[in-house]
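Please predict the structure of the following assembly.
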Amino acid sequence: MELWFSEMQSKNVKMSYKIKNVLHSEKTKFQNLAVLDSEEFGRMLILDDVVQLTMKDEFIYHEMIAHVPLFTHGSPERVLVIGGGDGGTLHEILKHPVKEAHLVEIDEKVIEASKKFFPELSVAFDDPRAKIFCEDGIAYVKRFKNHYDVIIVDSTDPVGPAVGLFRKEFYKDIFDALTEKGVFVAQTESPFYYEGLLKEVYNCIAEIFPYAAVYTAVVPTYPGALWTFIMGSKQVDPNKANVPESCDFKTRYYTPDIHKACFKIPAFIKEILSK
Ligand code: SAM
């Protein structure tokens, strides 16, 4: 008998994956967590029936959420990830010569599952520059002023404990927690299915930060494939950042040319932002 996992990508759209094995399944304090082994995409992390990452395409999302803000800043020493308990974003950050990389994940079970099933990503937790905190990122960030050079919000969709990660009050706390040249990035979902959210978050960031910019990447297993990120920057104009000519580590999606190009957004997204 064939085993399939289906994600409701919207109320009316389903994406299905042929599954070889269910490797793990549990109900944590915060969400349902599963690790599946799929035919096409390899191991997959699923939270509340939503695909968080697959081993075949995780590099696209993780490289783009990490390298774009870090190279935009230029010389980050202290970086914070909120969410991201799989370790993928942290793993990319640690390819830069940062002094400290902190991660605040609300659900320790995500970290445990990653250590067991995604060793290629969770290897980041063992880096001496990494520090992991298991608590709500919303409360965590309130305790810091002028502290982090880059803050990355690598969250689940805006439901459950992640709702507050898409609110203006949280973005204000992030602004305060950043140093004077600070750069902030959040994943902001699909422009097809989350049009309203994209516009709302963009407007908040544009009100709080001197510079706000949307960038995109194509992630095959995320709803709609075309994915958005919003950057808020205190000093560096994201469109004029001094992006290095080349990377001194290996990447599979990110390149300096992609960095410059990713801020060139399609007309329909510009339309959403200007409505
Ligand atoms: N790349 C993924 C995506 O876009 O689907 C997100 C991956 S990562 C697994 C998201 C993490 O955010 C989850 O492990 C979840 O537990 C965590 N999270 C949700 N709300 C949070 C909060 N308020 N504070 C800290 N972490 C939170």
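The first helix runs from residue 58 to 73. DSSP finds nine helices and twelve strands in the chain.
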